[in-house]
Fold:
Amino acid sequence: VYELGSVFKPLTIAAALEAGVVHPESRFNVSEPIKLGRFTVTDTHKFAETADLTEIIVQSSNIGTVHVARALGIPRQTEFLKAAGLLDKAAIELPGSEAPIKPEHMTDVSAATISYGHGLSVTPLAFLSAFAALGNGGEMMPPTLRLDPDRKVKPVPLMSAVTAETVTRMMRESVIRGTGETADVEGYRVAGKTGTGEKPLNGGYDKNANISSFAAVFPEDGPQYALIVTLDDPKARAGRGATASGSSAPVAGRIIERVAPILGVTPRFDTNRPVRTGFSDQTPERSAL
Structure:
């Protein structure tokens, strides 16, 4: 199980949209850090005084996400996490499926940190089961390793189709012009989110060791597949850092570039803008959480 970082932000925003406590144009002050007892929530870079929900995802703003979580409130946040299966182990046909490491009680601090993917350790599979609902009209499907054409399962509604589509469009913006740029693949309209979580160490966090993840659905305008790439302590290399934008995101782009044609996903090309792919070594590095 891992603290997966900012890949949680789209789920937090989806929960708040679904609860009706925010709307896509809602704006929050992202210019000032947030004090949480002895902790301070900051962003990696200052980008604006206020930001709407799309910019909070595009810029991967911790501050903005905490404001959204506060609007949502602890009871509704906890209810959403439970409905998403993130407070239980993934129901998969493997004996090693691990239960999450979660706080005993949800406090203002834990609710804030969980909103941007810290303080709750889950398996990537459990996370992806919930995240995939963003590309599936808001419905979760139980994960399986079995190839069974006759398998009949009942979808679990997690959010409305409108909420799912809205957040997916926001994640597409993150890939077009935000922290997920290095995962973009020409023709396949990837919609996704980066996440970088510092590894726990002696009751704190190791600032030199990360869990790097990129979660995505594609194609954005008619999702057929979801994936998550999680790298344990990736190392920086020439031109790219160890955060998700420089490690797991380009790996996800390479995977999509290779498997999408095999899976029969129809490419659609947009000639109005340049596209960066997972194979490009010229992609500018961006900071990500």
